[in-house]
Amino acid sequence: MTITAASPADLANSLGAKATSEWLRIDQDRVDAFADATGDHQWIHTDPARAAAGPFGAPIAHGYLTLSLLPHLLSGLVAIDGLAMSVNYGLDRLRFLQPVPVGARVRAVVELASAEATARGVRAGYAVTVEIEGAEKPALVADTITLYVPA
């Protein structure tokens, strides 16, 4: 399912709509590339042998790696016609609830929580949950904000 609107102004008509992404596997190459990009080479992420004997029993993805995957996971879940652009506006709330083991699959569930007209366009709030396949608790929950600027 996709959250859709004929224009940014019509987005409010879709309040409460939900969409779910495809599953994405988190592999060690992705974790290592993120470590290189951020300089965070903590062994719980980048040393599989040491991490196997550590507190999580395996290497885990960086929390901020999981967060940084939101654009990929949410891509195609919201379709709004008549846009000049959309801009990540920020986060109101973010919690990392459970680590993502390397090799696990994650997906995003997104719900349109608000849509407010502004001088520049429509500011939309989304409740986002990143689930881990087979896990009871999600990896993260976040309230994200996107600004949609009409064409």
List keywords for this structure.
elongated; 151 residues; two-stranded parallel sheet; six-stranded antiparallel beta sheet; 5 helices; 21% helix; alpha+beta
Task: Describe this structure as you would to a colleague.
With 151 residues, this protein is α+β, with helices and mostly antiparallel strands. It is 21% helix and 40% strand. It contains five helices and eight strands, in the order βββαααααβββββ. Strand 7 (122-132) and strand 8 form a beta hairpin. It is elongated and about 55 Å long. The two termini are 25 Å apart.
Tally of strands? 8
Q: Report, as a whole number of angstroms, the end-to-end distance.
A: 25 Å
Q: Mean pLDDT, as a whole number? A: 97
User: Helical stretch count?
Assistant: 5
Question: Which of globular, elongated, flat, extended, rod-shaped describes the shape?
Answer: elongated
Uncertain residue ranges: none
What percentage of residues falls in helices of 4 or more residues?
10-25%
CA radius of gyration is 17 Å
Largest sheet: 6 strands, antiparallel
Structural class: alpha+beta
Give a quick precis of the structure.
The protein is of the alpha+beta class and 151 residues long. The protein has 5 helices and 8 strands, in the order E-E-E-H-H-H-H-H-E-E-E-E-E. Strands 2, 3, 5, 6, 7 and 8 form a 6-stranded antiparallel beta sheet that branches. The protein has a two-stranded parallel sheet with strand order 1-4.
